[in-house]
Specification:
The protein has 14 helices and no strands. By secondary structure, the chain is mainly alpha-helical. It has one domain. InterPro entries: EamA_dom (IPR000620), EmrE-like (IPR037185).
């Protein structure tokens, strides 16, 4: 029993570390002066470079995929690339608080997609949560519009980024039935980074010439929010319920907003606090009453 208690405490500590880690993502993006497509590209490429030693262990699976799996992986990768483009661009236009709290609508969008694709229905409490979260998003958008048209555009980009990652998650749910988490993540990251590389070529963005500070931020994005955040949550799915791990989306905007207040000197307005609380409560209600 003592060992079991210690194990639970360890998983809870790792869970908290993961939430803090992903919360630094928006801070690192705001600190960088590089184009957001370059930031996202190197974040993904560097993550895979760090994970490269594990490829040999999964080689049999990774290099024997069907044509259908490759097509779905490519689509999932493009959606992930689009998510990073839209969300990171939103951070250049609106506050960290608004951008990250709107991003928490992802599980709601995943549920909507699941309904239309897999005919999975939501119960009454989930619908209430969905409604509250959407009302909160409208409040944030209207408040940001009163302050600045750019801020509203940033909110819209974050909302579209949440939709893109929801599509990415739905495809991943289908692929993960017959594929390990490592193989899926590695190929999706590689394909997303490559899609961003083509985008950077078309846009004429430079691949080199960045300062040591920029390269450091690219590496920090790969290590902190990606490996100690998203990869860690994937691992915790073996030891914690999916609903519990999904709750991490509620922690990110809270900690990100606090970090932005301390590190970026971003103040939180009354409407952001109220609307943000409404969104977080709505998403919590949605996840809490969701079916495993």
């Amino acid at each position: 029993m003592e060992r079991s208690t210690k194990s639970v405490a360890t998983y809870e500590l790792l869970y908290i570390i993961g939430i803090i880690a992903i919360s630094f993502s928006s801070i690192f993006v705001r600190w960088s002066e590089a184009d957001v497509a370059v930031i996202a590209m190197y974040r993904l490429y560097l993550t895979n470079l760090i994970m490269l030693p594990l490829v040999w262990k999964y080689r049999a699976e990774m290099f024997h995929l069907s044509a259908k799996q490759w097509r779905l992986l490519a689509f999932s990768g493009v959606m992930l690339a689009l998510h990073f483009l839209l969300w990171m661009a939103s951070l250049r236009l609106t506050t960290v608080a608004s951008s990250t709290v709107i991003l928490t609508l992802e599980p709601v969008m995943v549920m909507l997609g699941s309904y239309f694709i897999f005919r999975i229905k939501a119960n009454r409490m989930m619908l209430w949560g969905m409604g509250l979260a959407l009302v909160g998003s409208v409040i944030i958008g209207s408040g940001d519009f009163a302050l600045s048209g750019d801020a509203l555009l940033g909110d819209i980009l974050s909302l579209l980024g949440a939709a893109a990652v929801a599509v990415h998650m739905l495809i991943g749910k289908q692929l993960r039935k017959d594929m390990s988490a490592f193989a899926y993540n590695f190929w999706v990251f590689a394909l997303a980074a490559t899609a961003l590389a083509f985008y950077n070529i078309v846009r004429g963005n430079s691949f080199t010439g960045y300062s040591s500070k920029e390269w450091g931020l690219f590496l920090l994005l790969a290590i902190v929010p990606t490996l100690f955040g998203h990869y860690l949550f994937n691992w915790l799915l073996k030891h914690m319920s999916a609903a519990a791990v999904s709750m991490s989306v509620l922690g990110e905007p809270v900690i990100s907003s606090l970090l932005a207040w301390v590190l970026l000197k971003e103040a939180l307005t009354g409407y952001q606090l109220a609307a943000g609380a409404l969104i977080l409560f709505g998403v919590w209600l949605f996840i809490r009453h969701g079916k495993e």
